[in-house]
Amino acid sequence: MALIMQRFSRMFMSSASAGVVANGSAAAALAPGLERATVANGCFWGTEHMYNKHFKNKVKHFRVGYTGGKSDSVAPSYRQVCSGSTGHAEALQITYDPKEVSYEELIEFFFRMHDPTQVNRQGPDIGTQYRSAIYYHSPEQKEKAEKVLAKVQEEHYKGKKIATEVREAGVFYDAEDYHQQYLDNNPGGYECPSHYLHW
């Protein structure tokens, strides 16, 4: 119960004191040879924590934020995203070197660590902001994501349709500072019970 209340209470934290970037997150230029992957699969605290745990030595940078909804010149607050009015999902943006880890590997892990058959929820976390989604940054990423999805559907979810949406990446807004590396900074904090390796 304490962990659920901890998750609920974050809606009422001050966005100003949390360090919201006033103009959203205009994507910084990537260094030569690096690429981005953007995924959403429930509470971004757990998504970031699991990716960081498994890819810490292979991935250059992780950042949690909001994407997939209305584009605006001002970054939405967590409270606005939770209201459903922005259409955004809680998401993780990964900056990586494809020579060290492949996009397919990152996307397969995405499917392994949550239940992609749930619609607009993960476990007890309910709402469109918790949907399962892959936001591709190139036609090549789209093709690879769809191939991995089809493989996972065939091998792990026969008879149960995967609900993950595969969409072109739009503006990514950095979440408030207190969300970044939340579970590393708050050991024992709330983590969605759907976030574990399913196979």
Structure description:
The chain has helices spanning 2-9, 44-55, 78-83, 103-112, 139-156, 182-185, and strands at residues 35-41, 59-67, 89-96, 121-122, 125-126, 132-136, 165-168, 173-174. With 199 residues, the protein is of the alpha+beta class. The strands form two sheets. A six-stranded mixed beta sheet has the order 7-6-1-3-2-8, with helices on one face. Strands 4-5 form a two-stranded antiparallel sheet.
List the helices and strands and how they pair.
Blueprint: H1 2-9, E1 35-41, H2 44-55, E2 59-67, H3 78-83, E3 89-96, H4 103-112, E4 121-122, E5 125-126, E6 132-136, H5 139-156, E7 165-168, E8 173-174, H6 182-185
Parallel strand pairs: 6-7
Antiparallel strand pairs: 1-3, 1-6, 2-3, 2-8, 4-5
What are the key terms here?
199 residues, alpha+beta, two-stranded antiparallel sheet, 6 helices, 29% helix, globular, disordered N terminus
